[in-house]
Structures are given as structure tokens and as C-alpha cells.
Automatic annotation (TrEMBL):
Domain of life according to the entry: Eukaryota
EC number(s) on file: 2.7.1.21
Protein name in UniProt: Thymidine kinase
GO biological process entries: DNA biosynthetic process; response to stress; thymidine metabolic process
Keywords: ATP-binding, DNA synthesis, Kinase, Metal-binding, Nucleotide-binding, Transferase, Zinc
One Pfam assignment: TK
Organism listed in the record: Dovyalis caffra
């Protein structure tokens, strides 16, 4: 497969392999080093099985799907998204990947995982502009749309609903479910009622190595959207999230009291 990042429509690609999607996805999940916690909205407790209710022949008509991958930073959300996208490509389906143009740490024309896997993508400020920028004809031929860093898209709900319900496409969404204060981040949780499956991934606690479900901000900045990597954030377990927040708050109070003291001498 050759990958050419420009122009936008070149991000539309398709392979004719006849490999089995179900086994590909199972392999993807089983080969993933961090075991995902799976919450299924259907009676089955394995989200991939929800695909079995759709036949391949009906996909191009009206059987859209929405799959959501959430978790803290460093949990492998982008890696999981790309593995699923690669499985779709292997199954002969046409895909496109969208990410936010707010996060330019790895360049705007590709999605890169922490372990270096790279696929071309469209970097946008909002999802509603995708169809026009990608091209209407190219859009109509798409089977699957992957969305990375979904917490940055305010129009996530409407986009996913229209793409899956109206246009019959599969949407695979990866994003942070919570911010550094464990509050709902953007619209990611809003699309869960729309979803076929939800997968919550965990990372490894940077302090004790246990499963980490939360992202601790190590610095004192307080805005919700602060783009950064391991220099700013670390994945932590519940115990170390709580103790880490206490430490960050204590450090902040010390810094603020120093500012007051400095001010009083002026
Ligand atoms: Zn820990």
C-alpha cells in the first residue's frame, strides 16, 4: 500500500484483500498489549460481535455503525483506532481518517500512534466541513470514517448521527472521555447513546504500574484544552490520581503564597 498524504482526496484508499474482518479485528484486539475494558451497549459483552448483526451486502445501503474508543492519555486509543481502520482496509473497504487541527504535535497530514504507526488523515477544526473538503463524490464512496482526538470536535454528535444514520457509513471514534479533572471532555460521552459499541482502554499507572484510567496534569495550568504529551500529562490509577491531585494542589498553593509574599515586598 502506498500512502500519499496530499491532496485530501488521496486519503481515500482501499485494498481488495478478502481477509475476514471478524478474525482481523479479533487478532487486533488480542495482539493489543493493554487489555481493554469493554462496555457493550448490547446483550453481548464483546463489541466486535455487534458487527455480526449486519451482513456485508447491506452495509452500502443504510446500515451505518458507530464504535467509540475512550480512555486516558497513553492508553493506546489512536493505536486501537488505526488497527481497526487497517482491518477495514484489509476487508476491502474505503476509509478516511479525521483528526483535530488543534493537535499538531505530529504534523497535520497524518495520524501517528505513540509507537510510530502512521496513516494519512484530514486535519480539521470541525467535522461539518469534512464532506466539502474531502469532495462529495469521494465522500459518497467512503465506507468507514475514523475520528481521532474526538474531544476537540464540538459537532461530533450531529456528524456521527448523520454519517451513520443517513449515509450508512461506519464511524470509529477515539477520544478522551475525561479531562485532567475527570470531567466529561467535549462531546465524546454525548455520542454513547448513538453507539453500537464502547471500548474503554486503560494505560499503565506511571507511579505503580497498575491499570490507569485517569490522566493527571503535572503542571499548574488550568485551562481544559492544553495540548501536551508526557511533559504535561501522566496516566495514573485511582490511588495515584487522588494523591497526585493533592500534591499538585499543594504545589499550586505554595507557588501562590510565594507570589503574594513577593507582591507584599513591592
Ligand atoms: Zn498507581
Amino acid at each position: 500500500m502506498s500512502i500519499n498524504p496530499t491532496p485530501l482526496s488521496s486519503n481515500f484508499f482501499s485494498l481488495a484483500s478478502k481477509s475476514n474482518l471478524f478474525s482481523n479485528l479479533q487478532n487486533t484486539i488480542s495482539s493489543f498489549p493493554l487489555k481493554p475494558t469493554v462496555i457493550s451497549l448490547k446483550p453481548s459483552n464483546f463489541p466486535i460481535q455487534t458487527r455480526c448483526v449486519h451482513s456485508n451486502s447491506s452495509r452500502s445501503s443504510s446500515s451505518g455503525e458507530i464504535h467509540v474508543i475512550v480512555g486516558p492519555m497513553f492508553a493506546g486509543k489512536t493505536t486501537t483506532l488505526l488497527h481497526r481502520v487497517q482491518a477495514e482496509i484489509s476487508d476491502g473497504r474505503s476509509i478516511a481518517i479525521i483528526k483535530s487541527n488543534k493537535d499538531n504535535r505530529y504534523g497535520l497530514d497524518s495520524v501517528v500512534t505513540h509507537d510510530g504507526v502512521k496513516l494519512p488523515c484530514c486535519a480539521l477544526s470541525n467535522l461539518s466541513s469534512f464532506r466539502q473538503k474531502f469532495g462529495h463524490d469521494a465522500y459518497d464512496k467512503l465506507d468507514v470514517i475514523g475520528i481521532d482526538e474526538a474531544q476537540f470536535f464540538e459537532d461530533l454528535y450531529d456528524f456521527c448521527r448523520e454519517v451513520a444514520d443517513r449515509d450508512g457509513k461506519t464511524v470509529i471514534v477515539a477520544g478522551l472521555d475525561g479531562d485532567y479533572l475527570r470531567r466529561s471532555f467535549g462531546s465524546v460521552l454525548d455520542i454513547i447513546p448513538l453507539a453500537d459499541s464502547v471500548t474503554k482502554l486503560s494505560a499503565r499507572c506511571e507511579i505503580c504500574g497498575k491499570r490507569a484510567f485517569f490522566t493527571l496534569r503535572k503542571t499548574e495550568e488550568t485551562q481544559t484544552e492544553l495540548i501536551g504529551g508526557a511533559d504535561v500529562y501522566m496516566p495514573v490509577c485511582r490511588q495515584h490520581y487522588v494523591s497526585g491531585q493533592v500534591a499538585v494542589e499543594a504545589a499550586k498553593m505554595v507557588l501562590e503564597s510565594q507570589k503574594v509574599q513577593c507582591g507584599s515586598f513591592v
